[in-house]
Design a protein that fits this description.
Length: 369
């Protein structure tokens, strides 16, 4: 533990950093819990309080998060239905008790180099088990999604049978409907950012009876989605993988007239644009569109002559069809150097677009020979 100017304030590292350190994984930013102090104590030491719901503060120098030890009591529905107690007499053990999984309920005392593990988290890490800390697991519906996320971080881990029953009961309680789309989306993005097996996220949610509660009609879409996700995900970066997952979902949803991801998730306008382009590209591929026409269509869809970002993101997701991205970039440079000033004289104006496509297609056909 560390002391912040007074023997009353004791600080421990908690959560993901401790878990990842014990697993010999890359450790994320440290989160600290402060025992024996108050908000005024931390403000006096120069800490800045952030947020109004929880007693969380930013260290004036390291900018790391320090939270007052707290206990929680469920008093209503949803994420905000908790009564928070952050009095200075809350113990470290009480703070750890409110956490979701035992592997996330381990603290580290950096002064004495000791782990504080009152709920068996180290044993569960050793035995590869995802287990709830207490029956209060069911108090927060987001824990179902977090459980599925950790199942993708640790794909070799098994979910404790008792934890699975609690999660399934929580799925049936109606509490999942209280989750905001923003919180759900944040969890999904973390899956694609940090997990090597993101497809497992959807499988586990299905096992926990949560998919149809969060995403209507998903059980009808899952058989179409998972084979493609498993096939394509490994080679994609997190942003590409997220776009690919949403595109596969959207394509399957359209096929069965189900809810689209745009209606179910808060996606950026860029992601939505990317998804639409990927779906159109798949349509060209399925129709076995000639290579030269495919390249031209993709360049016009992505506005590839003006800005290459969309082309760069779409191409790997499509599996580098026809030519590699580097070769495509050189081809685009050559296309841009061609004299197309003659197009302005074509009448009517509507005909110019088609003639320009034909012009580029002929050049590309010769280039691909």
């Amino acid at each position: 533990m560390l002391y912040l100017g007074t023997n009353n304030l004791k600080c421990y590292i908690v959560g993901g950093w401790v878990r990842d350190f014990l697993c010999n994984r890359h450790c994320t930013d440290k989160d600290w819990v402060v025992v024996g102090g108050s908000a005024n104590d931390l403000k006096t030491l120069g800490f800045e309080q952030v947020g109004a719901s929880f007693p969380v503060f930013i260290h004036p120098k390291t900018k790391e998060e320090y939270a007052l030890a707290r206990s929680e009591r469920k008093k209503g529905h949803g994420y905000h239905g908790f009564e928070i107690n952050s009095c200075s007499n809350i113990t470290l053990q009480e703070d750890l008790l409110r956490r979701d999984l035992t592997i996330n309920a381990i603290a580290y005392d950096p002064e004495h180099h000791q782990f504080i593990d009152p709920y068996g988290g180290q044993d569960d890490l050793k035995n590869k088990i995802l287990r709830h800390v207490s029956p209060a697991f069911v108090d927060d519906p987001l824990r179902i999604i977090r459980l599925a996320r950790f199942a993708t971080y640790f794909p070799e881990f098994k979910i404790d049978p008792g934890t699975k029953v609690l999660a399934q009961d929580l799925s049936s309680s109606g509490e999942l409907s209280t989750l905001s789309l923003e919180r759900i989306t944040q969890e999904i993005i973390k899956v694609y950012k940090y997990s090597d097996q993101p497809a497992k996220f959807w499988v586990v949610l299905d096992e926990l009876n949560a998919l149809d509660k969060i995403f209507p009609h998903w059980s009808n879409i899952l058989p179409d989605v998972l084979p493609l996700l498993r096939k394509k995900m490994p080679g994609l970066n997190p942003s590409q993988a997220f776009s690919y997952a949403m595109a596969v979902w959207h394509q399957a949803a359209i096929r069965i007239n189900a809810t689209s991801p745009q209606d179910s998730l808060k996606l950026s306008s860029y992601h939505i644009k990317l998804i639409k382009i990927i779906i159109k590209a798949w349509g060209f591929i399925e129709k076995k569109t000639p290579d030269s026409i495919f390249i031209v269509e993709m360049l016009f869809l992505t506005k590839g002559f003006q800005e290459m970002t969309l082309v760069q993101d779409v191409w790997p997701i499509l599996g580098n069809p026809i030519v590699k991205y580097e070769e495509l970039s050189l081809l685009i440079k050559k296309l841009k150097s061609l004299d197309t000033s003659w197009i302005i004289n074509i009448e009517p104006p509507a005909k110019r677009y088609l003639m320009l496509k034909d012009f580029y297609q002929e050049y590309i056909e010769n280039a691909l020979k």
